[in-house]
Write the structure tokens for this entry.
Amino acid sequence: MKRFYQNYKLLFGISGLVLILDQLSKSWIRSSLAMGEIWSPWEWLTPYARIVHWYNTGVAFGLFQGRAIIFTILAIIVSGLIIYYYPQVPKEDWYLRIALGLQMGGSLGNLVDRLFHNGQVTDFLSVGNFPVFNVADSSITIGCFILIIGIWLEERKAKKESILNENEVSIQENSSLE
């Protein structure tokens, strides 16, 4: 049990925090604003950013509307795969561990909505002309960015190590020729 806890504490901590923040914010929106109602603390801010009660039966950015059952099944599969794969991620790959936690938390946040709100995910963050989104959507997106940046940094590090190794071999070859 201790090994299980050590393997999963970061994953469940991050995903749990995302899930709680997501569900609390959505609950507040559903209880405070009527469907389609807009709230903004300052009138001048409304064209740029506002809170609006909306729902989505597709995925992020309003894509693939009406396919809630597919995304429900997909969220369960993705979460299961993350739980299976997570212990295999080296502890040094913290960026990947954080990214997976954010992605799983976001996936579970929208899954809870789909299961308990007739396949509809509550969205409420509206910025400019961008599609309305929520904490779970943001978490998945941020997790993807962290993953991409982490992979890029790892590739850079590997390339640098490869160049250093090549230089080392070249120096050794030169010194053996002398």
